[in-house]
């Protein structure tokens, strides 16, 4: 039910007691403003962390080879271990559905040129699955596919910055690029969140590279991601299992740290997870802290307002105001002020965050911001708390004997 | 109209208590104009506040217009105050952020009267106290006498059966006091029952009956020849 007269009373009271209304509004606006800014900055910090680790799949395992450091099973130390295609197939078959994506990798440094432009880049020869491991995003064309592998086609997928460097006045897609003397067709251009270096890479089918550079079936590295349903402990033991199987396969001593190296991202993932958790806790503490400060502020104001209005309450009661009308006039007025002030604080806070965003970027705070639902939730909490905090003094005031209230000068 | 039997009231002061009213018996008929007199601390204001339902008695009976006033809920007391009683205070007790018209209309608001209707009614009463030109002025823009007249208009607005005045001239100079008294006498002539607390003999002399209190009991209760206030104005 909408009582126009009640609202008229309330607006008159707010309008005629501007100092009081402004002061109480200021407290609330300030609390919400602080809440928005602190929360926004904390969120920005978290964004930075998330971004720093999100580039590559977090469930990756990298398998690399090196020279043995220990003699084992009659084989001398210093033996060089080289992975071959058959080792790649072995891993793929041995671990079956525990593996999500798997790719081989061969590194080469190449001199790339298009027309008069040339520069040197790192080349990675890979399987199609590599796209998902690196979270490579195709902007134009396509990635390496299975038929490229089978047919050893001379195609490459180049990074956004490679195109920018070499293809000055044209686009790269469909053109031929010269890599150390051999022409390759550019079938795709990609972008990557991992930074400039990641966008200065050139991808090629692994079979093509093996055929053209050395005509062998060597592989530098095997990368895979494990089934994301594995939990942390399962992932760790899976990494250990791979290590053991590979060492057995190449007759490497268990204690040999160099010959077969398995890097499991699960270990890092846990550290990042803990860091993010720590940040979340800090954010929560900040949020609750400011909110509690705001609630205390609102409660104080409510007590002050009721005190200030005691005489008015006495007059109203003498004229026949019911206790309920006293409570509602005080409560609605304060809720109204709190809601409006909270909204103003939110607007200012968001505005400030927008304004300082470029400055904060330097301090590793990316996209500081708060979700609307969060801030609206905070405002509602503040209003509710203010209402509860105000209800008690308002209720008490409504119960004061009018004569006591009237004597209050 | 009003009947009080063996009314007692005491206030706690620290650990002990102060017995303010020690068994008051009082009967007021319709159309009377009664002055309650006494030195400060005699209990006259307390008596008026109990009659005005602003305060509660500890024991004793109080019957107002046939209704026993006892153990009222806050809500009921509010309704009774609004319906039966009009208050005039020494310090006017107007709401400082409301103009004269809004102050007068407030009791009507609590009666649930519609806005337009209550503004007309409030204007009518303001005219009656001769302040229709000042309807849009705030209390701070009015003189003491004008404020008291606004307060009287407010007390009259709800058309109460009983008008209670607590030192209505206490904050006013002699001339203004007489103006206000002349006005109150006029209301009494029109049939309103009036009960007022005062400690000024000449003001009391303008009523029709004087009740003297001392130390919480009625010392004297006599009818007097009313002195008309108009002659001083």
TrEMBL record, chain A:
Domain ABC3 transporter permease C-terminal residues, every copy: 285-402
Residue span(s) of domain MacB-like periplasmic core: 21-235
Transmembrane segments: 21-42, 277-305, 326-353, 373-392
Keywords: Cell membrane, Membrane, Transmembrane, Transmembrane helix
Pfam families assigned to the protein according to its UniProt record, in alphabetical order: FtsX, MacB_PCD
Keyword Electron transport listed: no
Location in or out of the cell: Cell membrane
Keyword S-adenosyl-L-methionine: no
Organism domain of life: Bacteria
Topology class, membrane: Multi-pass membrane protein
Family label: Belongs to the ABC-4 integral membrane protein family.
Protein name: ABC transporter permease
UniProtKB/TrEMBL annotation, chain B:
InterPro entries, alphabetized: AAA+_ATPase, ABC_transporter-like_ATP-bd, MacB-like_ATP-bd, P-loop_NTPase
Gene3D superfamilies referenced in this protein's UniProt entry, alphabetically: P-loop containing nucleotide triphosphate hydrolases
All residue ranges annotated as the ABC transporter domain in the record: 2-233
Record-linked Pfam families: ABC_tran
Keyword Cell cycle: no
Family annotation (SMART domains): AAA (SM00382)
Domain of life from the UniProt record: Bacteria
Keywords in alphabetical order: ATP-binding, Nucleotide-binding, Translocase, Transport
Family assignment from sequence similarity: Belongs to the ABC transporter superfamily.
Protein name as catalogued: ABC transporter ATP-binding protein
Organism for this UniProt entry: Flavivirga jejuensis
């Amino acid at each position: 039910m909408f009582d126009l007269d009640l609202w008229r009373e309330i607006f008159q009271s707010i309008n005629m007691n501007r100092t009081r209304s402004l002061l109480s509004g200021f407290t609330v606006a300030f609390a919400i403003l602080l809440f928005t800014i602190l929360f926004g900055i904390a969120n920005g910090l978290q964004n930075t962390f998330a971004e720093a680790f999100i580039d590559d799949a977090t469930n990756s395992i990298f398998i690399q080879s090196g020279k043995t450091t220990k003699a084992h099973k009659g084989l001398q130390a210093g033996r060089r271990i080289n992975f071959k295609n058959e080792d790649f197939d072995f891993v793929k078959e041995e671990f079956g559905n525990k593996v999500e994506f798997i790719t081989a990798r061969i590194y080469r440094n190449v001199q790339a040129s298009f027309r008069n432009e040339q520069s040197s880049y790192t080349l990675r020869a890979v399987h199609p699955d590599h796209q998902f491991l690196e979270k490579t995003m195709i902007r134009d064309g396509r990635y390496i596919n299975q038929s490229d592998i089978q047919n050893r086609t001379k195609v490459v997928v180049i990074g956004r910055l490679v195109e920018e460097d070499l293809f000055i006045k044209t686009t790269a897609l469909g053109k031929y690029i010269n890599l150390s003397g051999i022409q390759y067709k550019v079938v795709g251009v990609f972008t990557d969140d991992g930074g400039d270096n990641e966008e200065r890479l050139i991808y090629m089918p692994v079979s093509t590279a093996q055929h053209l550079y050395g005509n062998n079936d060597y592989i530098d590295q095997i990368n895979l991601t494990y089934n994301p349903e594995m939990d942390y402990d399962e992932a760790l033991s899976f990494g250990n299992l791979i290590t053991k199987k590979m060492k057995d396969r190449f007759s490497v001593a268990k204690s040999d740290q160099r010959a077969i190296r398995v890097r499991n991202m699960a270990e890092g993932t846990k550290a990042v997870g803990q860091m993010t958790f720590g940040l979340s806790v800090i954010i929560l503490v900040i949020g609750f802290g400011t909110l509690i400060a705001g609630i205390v502020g609102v409660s104080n104001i409510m007590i002050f307002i009721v005190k200030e209005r005691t005489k008015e309450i006495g007059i109203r009661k003498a004229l026949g105001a019911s206790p309920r009308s006293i409570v509602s006039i005080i409560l609605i007025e304060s809720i109204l002020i709190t809601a409006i002030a909270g909204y103003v604080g939110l607007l200012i806070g968001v505005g400030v965050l927008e304004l300082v965003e470029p400055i904060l970027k330097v301090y590793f705070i990316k996209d500081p911001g708060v979700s609307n639902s969060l801030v609206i939730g905070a405002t509602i909490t503040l209003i509710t708390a203010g209402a509860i905090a105000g209800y008690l003094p308002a209720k008490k005031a409504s119960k004061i004997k009018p004569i006591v209230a009237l004597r209050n000068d | 109209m009003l009947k009080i039997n063996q009314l007692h009231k005491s206030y706690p002061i620290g650990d002990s208590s102060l017995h303010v009213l020690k068994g008051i018996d009082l009967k007021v008929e319709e159309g009377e104009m009664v002055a309650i007199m006494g030195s400060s601390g005699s209990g006259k204001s307390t008596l008026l506040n109990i009659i005005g339902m602003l305060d509660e008695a500890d024991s004793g009976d109080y019957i107002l217009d046939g209704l026993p006033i006892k153990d009222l809920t806050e809500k009921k007391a509010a309704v009774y105050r609004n319906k039966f009683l009009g208050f005039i205070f020494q310090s006017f007790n107007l709401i400082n952020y409301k103009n004269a018209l809004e102050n007068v209309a407030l009791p009507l608001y609590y009666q649930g009267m519609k806005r337009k209707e209550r503004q007309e009614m409030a204007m009518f009463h303001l005219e009656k106290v001769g302040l229709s030109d000042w309807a849009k002025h705030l209390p701070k823009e009015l003189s003491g006498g004008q404020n008291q007249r606004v307060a009287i208009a407010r007390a009259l607005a709800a058309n109460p059966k009983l008008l209670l005045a607590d030192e209505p001239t206490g904050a006013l100079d002699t001339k203004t006091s007489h103006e206000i008294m002349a006005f109150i006498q006029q209301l009494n002539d029109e049939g309103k029952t009036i009960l007022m607390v005062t400690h000024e003999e000449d003001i009391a002399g303008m009523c029709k009956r004087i009740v003297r209190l001392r130390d919480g009991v009625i010392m004297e209760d006599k009818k007097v020849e009313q002195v008309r206030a108009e002659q001083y104005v």
